[in-house]
Write a structure and sequence with these properties.
Blueprint lengths: L6 E4 L11 H11 L4 H14 L1 H13 L2 H16 L1 H12 L22 H16 L3 H29 L45 H17 L3 H12 L9 H34 L10 E8 L4 E8 L1
Parallel strand pairs: 1-3
Antiparallel strand pairs: 2-3
Helix pairs in contact: 2-7, 3-10, 6-7, 7-8, 7-10, 8-9, 8-10
C-alpha cells in the first residue's frame, strides 16, 4: 500500500473541527478582562464629550419628531398660564402651609448651589467618586450624565428661556387688594420684562420656567433611565424640592414647564450617551491589535485507508 503523508494547515479553526474553540475562549477572556479605572474613567469622559452634539440633536428630535404632540403641549402650556392666577393662589394658600419640614443645612462652596440644592449636587459627586474608586463604569456614566443635565438645565432654562420670556414672579396673596411690589406681579401674562441676563437666582423677569424644577427633573430622569427605577429618583427629588417650597416664588405653570423641559433634557442625554457607547464598543470590536493575538497550536494524528498524516490547526 502506498502511503502519502499530508500536512494540512488551517489558519482559522472552525467549531466543527474541534470541540475546544480556542478562538472563542480567547475572545471571551478579552471581554471578561476589565479595564483599569483610569481607562474606564477616560472612556466615560470621552463618551460624555463626544455625545454633546447628539444630546442637542436628541432634544431637537423630541420637539420636531411629532408636531401634533408639540402643538398639544404648547396649547396645554398656554392653558396653564391662563389659569395661573387660580392655581398659584391655591398653591400658596392651601398646599404650601401644609408642607412644614426642612432638611438639615449643608453648606456649599459650589457657585449657584444654595439651600436644598446640595442634596442633589453632592450625591452626584459622591456617586462618581465611589464608582471611580471601585471602577464601576455604570455609576460613573450615571453621575456624569446627571452632572451634564444640571449644566444643560442652567444654560437652557436659567440663561436662555428665562431671558427670552422675562416673566415676573407672582406676588404672594395674588387675589388681595394690596398694591403690587416690584419685581413681583399679579398678572400671569406679565412677560417681556427684560433686565439683563441673570446668572444667579431671583431678579426681574426670572420666573418662567423654574430652574429648580428643570434641574431636579432632569437629574431624576437620568437616574430613572440609567437604573430603570422611577420611584427612588422621583421621590427623592420631590422630597428635596418640597423641603424648600416656600422659597420658590413661581407660578404653577413655571414649575410644570420646568419639569417638562428637565425631562426632555435628561432623556436626551441618556439616549445620546447610549448611542455613543454603542458606537465606541462597535468600533473597538473591529480594532484588535494583531501583535496581541496568540496562536494556539493543535497537531492531530489522522489515519485513513488512503493516507497517514497530521492535521495541524492554528487558532488565533
Amino acid at each position: 500500500m502506498k502511503y502519502h503523508t499530508i500536512i494540512l494547515f488551517s489558519i482559522f479553526s472552525i467549531h466543527c473541527f474541534s470541540q475546544h474553540d480556542s478562538l472563542n475562549v480567547k475572545h471571551d477572556s478579552l471581554k471578561v478582562k476589565k479595564d483599569n479605572r483610569f481607562k474606564v474613567a477616560g472612556s466615560v469622559f470621552a463618551d460624555s464629550f463626544l455625545s454633546i452634539p447628539g444630546d442637542f440633536s436628541a432634544m431637537g428630535h423630541t420637539v420636531s419628531s411629532d408636531w401634533k404632540r408639540t402643538a398639544l403641549y404648547t396649547a396645554g402650556i398656554i392653558g396653564l398660564i391662563a389659569v395661573d392666577k387660580q392655581t398659584t393662589d391655591f398653591l400658596h394658600d392651601k398646599i404650601e402651609p401644609n408642607i412644614d419640614y426642612s432638611l438639615p443645612e449643608i453648606k456649599s462652596t459650589i457657585p449657584h448651589v444654595i439651600g436644598a440644592d446640595s442634596y442633589i449636587v453632592y450625591p452626584i459627586i459622591g456617586l462618581y467618586a465611589g464608582s471611580l474608586i471601585i471602577n464601576n463604569e455604570k455609576g460613573q456614566v450615571a453621575a456624569v450624565n446627571a452632572a451634564k443635565s444640571l449644566a444643560y438645565s442652567y444654560v437652557i432654562t436659567q440663561i436662555v428661556l428665562k431671558t427670552l420670556s422675562s416673566r415676573n414672579r407672582p406676588q404672594r396673596k395674588i387675589n388681595d387688594d394690596k398694591p403690587v411690589v416690584e419685581p413681583f406681579t399679579k398678572n400671569p401674562w406679565d412677560f417681556g420684562n427684560y433686565d439683563n441676563v441673570h446668572f444667579g437666582h431671583g431678579g426681574t423677569g426670572t420666573s418662567f420656567p423654574s430652574f429648580h424644577a428643570t434641574s431636579y427633573f432632569a437629574v431624576a430622569k437620568v437616574f430613572q433611565m440609567e437604573y430603570n427605577n422611577y420611584w427612588i429618583p422621583y421621590t427623592f427629588v420631590t422630597a428635596v424640592f418640597l423641603s424648600d417650597i416656600k422659597s420658590h416664588e413661581h407660578w404653577v405653570s413655571d414649575l410644570l414647564v420646568g419639569g417638562l423641559v428637565g425631562t426632555i433634557i435628561g432623556r436626551s442625554i441618556v439616549i445620546s450617551s447610549r448611542k455613543q457607547r454603542a458606537k465606541r464598543n462597535k468600533s473597538s470590536a473591529f480594532n484588535y491589535d494583531p501583535k496581541k493575538l496568540t496562536m494556539h497550536k493543535q497537531l492531530i494524528p489522522q489515519i485513513s485507508g488512503s493516507m497517514v498524516g497530521f492535521h495541524f490547526i492554528g487558532s488565533f
